[in-house]
Amino acid sequence: MNSNQVKNQAAFQRAKLELSNRYPPGRFVAFDDGQIVADAATFDELTDALAAIDKDRPDVFVVQAGANYPEEVSILL
What stretch of H or E contains 18? Predict the structure, then answer.
């Protein structure tokens, strides 16, 4: 995990409660460099918004407001 990904994960952990209060459930929210940089109703709209501000990189962290994410996951290939 690179430093931007670590910052984004930490920012998400700090902002979990705020996301539920600030955004309606299901809204997509993007973090970059430890800050919320964009939000949109759909993933496609968020992708377009991120591209418009040159933030369409793989290390931008995207979540949905109101979703419960586990602390860890295992991915089996």
Answer: helix 3-22
E strands present in the chain? 28-32, 35-40, 61-64
Domain-embedded: residue 10:
yes
Q: Which residue range(s) make up the domain with 32? A: 3-64
Question: Is 62 within 8 Å of 30 (Cβ atoms)?
Answer: yes
Convert the pLDDT of each residue in 3-56 to its tens digit. Answer: 888 898 899 889 988 898 999 999 999 999 999 999 999 999 999 999 999 998
**Residue 34 located in a structural domain:** yes
How many independent structural domains does the chain possess?
Answer: 1
Q: What is the pTM of this model?
A: 0.83
73 found inside a domain: no
The half-sphere exposure of 59 on its side-chain side, counting CA atoms within 13 A, is 12
